[in-house]
């Protein structure tokens, strides 16, 4: 945040135009029992004209009569996403909305926060008063702020709402950080305006996509019979999938070229590129997907491996499991990590296997294997705190994936 002395002044003094603030925003709490989608604040940014007047400042005795205009200089301002996020989380919680700042997903996928929220600050008009005789200098202030809120749906992978708000904040007490306090109070009022808006409330409380979408027609596929397979052999059936600028993993489930992966790996693409561990490449066609469960079925020609055995029996707590995929970069295709089943979890009505087996971006869509090389789950997300992995990673149970895609194995 800028210090007042670092902001360029226009020079000269004049009477500042009057500034009337909107009344404080009142947010009606959601009714008890309302099902709310998770939302996570991710970032804030400015969209103000360089050199434009954003405030007037004067001394404590003549503030309203003699003021100097302050010109916008983006280089003087740096937003603190943690502080903005704390305001968003606090206000959301008080109004009954779900919000978290503790989890970072290494890739977009289903989590306790389906939506990501960003704030584009499009307007500021402030009146700041200073007491220059104090050491350090102290300030009070009033500010009207306009924000365009952007809401990104991590399931549909697109911005689904833009909500404009205008609200005002006031810091009556003189403090050394009075400019910051004024700014953050205006931001807090805009958060409340967002939470009070019909558009945001309807989006956060609407039925989930998978509960309203029609069921896929049943489809059977020729699954291999149960068999013990080494992890090294199973890794040969795990592919890298390229869709647009993105990359993920997938695995062969049938000898006619059927692959399973995540919906967020293929996105809206109809065709994807498939690369096998031996370097062979082919084209895959996305046959069906379920965005809510984040699973997709792809068919490719000329499979270069035998399909993996699918184990629909849930893995036991503490059972050894292996992650196979292409973490971070295609050069690392076929990487294997080992862990144990840490827990089973349910988030927003969806079941997950939790494991400490290491995953990174690019592992999404790859298999979670048991010690016999059979698939028990599909990698979907990993959690971080402060940018560091914490050994909490989530996998879609394979039987849930098959059910979401209306797939039935036949032998």
From TrEMBL:
One of the record's GO molecular function terms: serine-type endopeptidase activity
GO biological process: proteolysis
Superkingdom: Bacteria
Annotated coiled-coil segments of the chain: none
PANTHER family: PROTEASE DO-LIKE 5, CHLOROPLASTIC, SERINE ENDOPROTEASE DEGS
Protein's name according to its UniProt entry: Serine protease
Organism encoding this protein: Phenylobacterium kunshanense
């Amino acid at each position: 945040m800028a210090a007042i002395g670092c902001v360029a002044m226009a020079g000269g003094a004049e009477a500042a135009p009057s500034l009337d603030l909107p009344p404080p925003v009142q947010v009606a709490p959601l009714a008890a029992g309302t099902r709310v989608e998770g939302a996570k604040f991710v970032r804030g940014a400015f969209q103000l004209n360089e050199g434009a007047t954003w405030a007037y400042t004067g001394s404590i005795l003549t503030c309203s009569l003699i003021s100097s205009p302050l010109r916008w200089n983006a280089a003087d301002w740096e937003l603190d996403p943690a502080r903005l996020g704390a305001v968003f989380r606090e206000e959301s919680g008080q109004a009954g909305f779900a919000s978290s700042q503790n989890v970072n997903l290494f890739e977009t996928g289903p989590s306790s926060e389906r939506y990501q929220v960003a704030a584009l600050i499009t307007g500021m008009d402030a009146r700041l008063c200073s007491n220059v005789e104090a050491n350090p200098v102290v300030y009070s202030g009033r500010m009207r702020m306009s924000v365009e809120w952007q809401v990104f749906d991590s399931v549909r992978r697109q911005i689904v709402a833009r909500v404009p708000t205008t609200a005002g904040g006031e810091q009556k007490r003189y403090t050394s950080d009075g400019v910051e306090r004024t700014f953050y109070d205006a931001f807090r009022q805009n958060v409340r305006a967002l939470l009070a808006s019909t558009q945001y409330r309807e989006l956060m409380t609407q039925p989930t996509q998978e509960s309203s979408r029609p069921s896929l027609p049943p489809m059977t596929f020729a699954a291999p019979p149960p068999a013990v397979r080494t992890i090294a052999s199973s890794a040969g059936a795990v592919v890298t999938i390229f869709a647009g600028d993105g990359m993920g993993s997938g695995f062969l489930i049938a000898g006619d070229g059927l692959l399973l992966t995540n919906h967020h790996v293929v996105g809206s693409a109809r065709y994807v590129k498939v690369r096998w561990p031996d370097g062979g490449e082919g084209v895959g066609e996305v046959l069906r997907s379920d965005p809510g469960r984040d699973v997709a079925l792809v068919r490719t020609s000329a499979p270069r491996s035998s399909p993996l055995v699918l184990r629909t029996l849930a893995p036991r707590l503490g059972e050894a499991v292996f992650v196979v995929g292409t973490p971070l970069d295609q050069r690392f295709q076929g990487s294997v990590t080992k862990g144990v089943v840490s827990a089973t979890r349910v988030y927003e009505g969806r079941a997950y296997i939790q494991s400490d087996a290491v995953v990174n971006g690019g592992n999404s869509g790859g298999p979670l294997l048991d010690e016999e090389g059979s698939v028990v789950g599909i990698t979907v997300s990993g959690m971080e705190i402060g940018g560091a992995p914490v050994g909490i990673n989530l996998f879609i149970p394979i039987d849930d994936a098959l059910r979401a895609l209306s797939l039935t194995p036949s032998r």
